[in-house]
């Protein structure tokens, strides 16, 4: 297992704006033009509650976990802009800036690049214009990468992960249901993957069952799915040595 796996020093989060633009509902909509994601029947956004929850979340990262929290300025896109995990895949001292399926999210990459470079990570960019890659489709187990092939990430995006992290095996996993790989599974502890109970989760679980020494733990993630991402989606976790 990679040294220091599961140990972090920094967490990068995104601040919410005091108010949302008028295009928020359209951006969140599903369908062919709106793309995969929560549909028109999704629960309405309570912005004040979202601000409170984000404050508590950052407080837990800072006070309970002892991480140095770096807050990026607000970006257009409402709650979706909080999902920083979509924008970068970080392992060791290397960060791969992704190429989100939604073109409207690609303008968010510049602020993420700036903070990663300030923290002295080696930053790599997806240059293949035919690739789509969301970080929420990338799961690192400590020994290898799994990349979910979903409505958000294609095989050329998976190839970008393999080209960047050449010291690790990169395998693909089919993802259905319009979600991301990490919508229903994530690392819960070293050698432990937590997987949800949905049909899409059960289909994707089969490749993980072939990985030796990994424990699978079922977990329901339906509430987190209401905002388009799981708990880990709202931050980038980094491990930076003081002399890095």
Question: Which helices and strands occur, and which strands form pairs?
Answer:
Blueprint: E1 10-14, H1 24-28, H2 31-34, H3 47-64, E2 68-72, E3 88-91, E4 94-97, H4 109-118, E5 122-125, E6 138-140, E7 144-149, H5 155-164, E8 169-174, E9 185-189, E10 192-195, H6 199-208, E11 215-218, H7 222-225, E12 236-238
Parallel strand pairs: 1-2, 4-5, 7-8, 10-11
Antiparallel strand pairs: 1-12, 3-4, 6-7, 9-10
Summarize the structure.
By secondary structure, the chain is of the alpha/beta class. It has a domain at 10-15 and 46-174 and 231-238: L-arginine/glycine Amidinotransferase, Chain A. It has helices at residues 24-28, 31-34, 47-64, 109-118, 155-164, 199-208, 222-225, and strands spanning 10-14, 68-72, 88-91, 94-97, 122-125, 138-140, 144-149, 169-174, 185-189, 192-195, 215-218, 236-238.
CATH class of the domain at 10-15 and 46-174 and 231-238: Alpha Beta
Strand content: 15-25%
Give the name of the CATH architecture of the domain at 10-15 and 46-174 and 231-238: 5-stranded Propeller
Would you count the extended β strands for me? 12
Mean of residue pLDDT? 79
**Which class do the helix and strand fractions yield?**
alpha/beta
Query: What's the number of helices?
Result: 7
Which fold name is given in CATH as the topology of the domain at 10-15 and 46-174 and 231-238?
L-arginine/glycine Amidinotransferase, Chain A
How would you sum up the global shape? globular
Order of helices and strands: EHHHEEEHEEEHEEEHEHE
Task: Detail the poorly predicted runs.
Answer: 22-35, 219-225
Helical percent range? 25-40%
Question: Taking strands numbered 1, 2, ... along the chain, how are they ordered across the largest sheet?
Answer: 2-1-12
The end-to-end span amounts to 21 Å
**Radius of gyration (Å):** 17 Å
């Amino acid at each position: 297992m990679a040294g220091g796996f599961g140990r972090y020093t920094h967490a990068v989060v995104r601040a919410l704006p005091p108010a949302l633009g008028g295009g928020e509902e359209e951006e969140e909509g599903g369908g062919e033009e709106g793309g995969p994601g929560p549909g028109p029947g999704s629960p309405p956004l309570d912005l004040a509650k979202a601000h409170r929850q984000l404050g508590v979340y950052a407080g837990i990262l800072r006070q309970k976990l002892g991480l140095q929290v770096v807050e990026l300025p607000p970006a257009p896109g409402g709650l979706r802009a909080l999902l920083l995990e979509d924008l970068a895949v970080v392992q060791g001292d290397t960060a791969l800036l992704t190429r989100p399926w939604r073109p409207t999210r690609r303008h968010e990459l510049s602020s993420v690049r700036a903070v990663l470079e300030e923290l002295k990570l080696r930053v790599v960019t997806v240059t293949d214009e035919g690739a789509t890659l969301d970080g929420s489709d990338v799961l690192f187990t400590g020994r290898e990468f799994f990349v979910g092939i979903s409505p958000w990430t294609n095989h050329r995006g998976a190839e970008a992960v393999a080209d960047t992290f050449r010291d690790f095996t990169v395998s693909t996993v089919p993802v259905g249901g319009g979600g991301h790989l990490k919508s229903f599974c994530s690392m819960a502890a070293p050698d432990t993957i937590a997987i949800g109970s949905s049909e899409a989760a059960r289909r994707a679980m089969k490749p993980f069952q072939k990985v030796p020494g990994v424990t699978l733990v079922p977990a329901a993630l339906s509430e987190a799915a209401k905002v388009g991402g799981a708990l880990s989606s709202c931050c980038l976790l980094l491990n930076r040595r003081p002399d890095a």
